[in-house]
Amino acid sequence: QVQLVESGGGWVQAGGSLRLSCAASGSIFSINAMGWYRQTPGKQRELVGTITRSRRINYADSVKGRFTISRDNAKTTVYLQMDSLRPEDTAVYYCNAARYGSTKADYWGQGTQVTVSS
């Protein structure tokens, strides 16, 4: 089993920045990809970005050029630097992790709220 703990959410004005962190513990040797999704009330959870252990990165079009995902493999921690935030970025952000060979997220964090005011 893998446990994921997010931190760094909060409130910020439009145009501001926040940095989210997600620390993994447990059977971390089994993890390949880690990433971030977000969800607003009444909508499905959507991809923000993912990064593999070899640092192959994928972003949603809506955040390209504004968000940066990075990873510390030694600590199995993934970060999401969010710049130029917009009110539409307001959501609960969830960290996830996928095992090697998995085609879906196997583990999820509890989520952290990000609120961007106009």
**Which term fits the overall shape?**
globular
**Backbone structural class:** mainly beta
- Chain-averaged pLDDT: 95
Radius of gyration: 13 Å
What low-confidence regions span 5 or more consecutive residues with pLDDT below 50? none
Write the SSE topology:
Blueprint: E1 2-7, E2 10-13, E3 18-26, E4 31-39, E5 46-51, E6 57-59, E7 67-72, E8 77-82, E9 91-99, E10 107-108, E11 112-117
Parallel strand pairs: 2-11
Antiparallel strand pairs: 1-3, 3-8, 4-5, 4-9, 5-6, 7-8, 9-10, 9-11
Explain what this protein looks like in three dimensions.
The chain has strands at 2-7, 10-13, 18-26, 31-39, 46-51, 57-59, 67-72, 77-82, 91-99, 107-108, 112-117. The protein is mostly beta strands and 118 residues long. Strand 9 and strand 10 (107-108) form a beta hairpin. Helices cover 0% and strands 56% of the residues. It is globular, with a radius of gyration of 13 Å.
Structure characteristics:
globular; 118 residues; four-stranded antiparallel β-sheet; 11 strands; single chain; mainly beta; seven-stranded mixed β-sheet
